[in-house]
Design a protein that fits this description.
With about 300 residues, this protein is an alpha/beta fold. It has a single domain, classed as Alpha-Beta Barrel (TIM Barrel), CATH 3.20.20. It is about 35% helix and about 15% strand. The chain has 11 helices and 9 strands. It has a 6-stranded parallel β-sheet with strand order 3-2-1-9-8-7. A 3-stranded parallel β-sheet has the order 4-5-6, covered by helices on one side. Strand 1, helix 2 and strand 2 form a beta-alpha-beta unit.
């Protein structure tokens, strides 16, 4: 993921902003005694995760899914796969594995949530539901030039989305979060429709670190800078996630990206170790015996 990449990460203040005042209020509305934690990468391709797969690995997804418990499925952004492909992915993965597929670009970037997207959405969902119980949460990522002037499209999309399928959304235009009136209207819409508000932690876009949860799911897309600070940033996230766990959060979905993706499994392994220690999770540490020593 190149979004928000910078040439000088050492100059960035990576301090996590404080929570939006309403985040804890949302968690307290329906507190959970247990927290479901899913951590993964964005891709399973051997070319992207160079060095992750042992020599002789024949099926990348089959191996990946036995190291991680989830994947942020970005391939579905570029192509709507047929139902049979989703069924194959389902059959290759363990019972506890979850997929978090991105909605197709025709919906978000080409048609931009306009009035004629329903057939495309239906086609996408008719395929994706073949993941059955392994379908974690579908997510929508809008182009950075999609501005609040088209808020009516967001309202129509949110209200028409099938409520039985979890959805998370990500907006990149700064006015969605930095115009207070628009932001509050957006948060209310998402809360009313039980849609998760994605948090993107990227070096060059600190302006969209809203820290506002709209239901009991934290969906975090973390973008490392291939810099030593990536690890301390993750430590700060563990502290924040523990705080949310103490306040009854039900689901944590945390996906690790890198400008050079081959380091994503290393960062993920480091994060998982911290989560196991601080949140009491029992997540498998990917390639624990094979990965090179963590930085």
């Amino acid at each position: 993921m190149k979004f928000g990449s910078v040439d000088n990460p050492e100059a960035i203040d990576f301090t996590l902003p404080p929570d939006h005042p309403d985040t804890i209020k949302v968690l307290h509305k329906s507190p959970s005694d247990t927290t479901n934690v899913f951590v993964g990468c964005a891709k399973w391709n051997r070319a992207d995760l160079k060095g992750f797969y042992p020599r002789g690995t024949k099926d990348e997804l089959e191996y990946y899914s036995r190291q991680f418990n989830s994947i942020e499925l970005n391939a579905t952004f570029y192509r709507i796969f047929p139902p049979e492909q989703f069924a194959k992915w389902y059959n290759k993965t363990p019972d506890n594995f979850r997929f978090f597929p991105k909605l197709n670009q025709e919906i978000s970037h080409w048609k931009r949530l306009n009035d004629d997207i329903n057939p495309v959405v239906d086609n996408y969902l008719n395929s994706a539901i073949n993941l059955k119980e392994k379908l974690g949460c579908i997510f929508l990522q809008m182009h950075s030039n999609f501005a609040p002037k088209d808020f009516d499209r967001v309202i129509n999309f949110a209200e028409s989305w099938p409520k039985e399928i979890p959805l998370a959304v990500e907006f990149r235009h700064t006015d969605w979060y930095n115009d207070k009136t628009i932001a509050e209207d957006l948060y209310q819409l998402l809360e009313e429709n039980n849609i998760s508000n994605i948090i993107v932690d990227s070096a060059g876009r600190r302006d969209i670190m809203h820290m506002r949860l709209t239901n009991s799911r934290a969906f975090v897309r973390y973008v490392g800078a291939n810099h030593q600070s990536d690890y301390t940033r993750l430590e700060d996230w563990v502290e924040r996630l523990k705080h949310w766990q103490n306040n009854g959060i039900k689901d944590i979905n945390f996906f690790v990206h890198q400008n050079i993706e081959k380091e994503s499994p290393l960062l993920s392994a480091y994060l998982i170790k911290q989560l196991n220690t601080e949140l009491g999770t029992d997540l498998k540490i990917p390639n624990e015996d094979l990965q090179q020593k963590l930085l």
